[in-house]
Amino acid sequence: MADRDPEIEYGEDRSEGMSWNELMDRDSKPAPEFLKEEAYEYRGSDPIPVERYTSEEFAKAEREKMWPYVWQFAAREEDLPDPGDFVVYEMAGRSYLIVRQDDGSVRAMHNVCLHRGRKLRLEDGCAEKFVCPFHAFTWNKDGSFDHAPCEWDFPHLKDKNMDLPDLEVGHWQGYIFIREERGGPTLEEYLAPLPDHFKRWNHDECVTVMRVAKEVPANWKVVMEAFMEAWHTIVTHPQLLPFTGDCNSAYRIWGDHVNVNLVPFGVMSPHVQEGQGEQWIVDEFIKYNGRSSDNYDPDGDPMAIKVPEDKTARQALGDKMREVYSEQAGYSLMDASDAEVLDALVYNVFPNFAPWGGYMPNIVYRWFPGKTADTSVMEVRILARIKKGEPKPRGAELISLTLDQKWTEAGVLGGLGDVFEQDMENLPYVQEGLHAHKTGEVQLGNYQEIRIRQFQDTLMKYLEGTLGGGNS
Question: How far is CA 106 from CA 12, 151, 301, 323, in A?
Answer without folding.
Answer: 46, 30, 45, 37
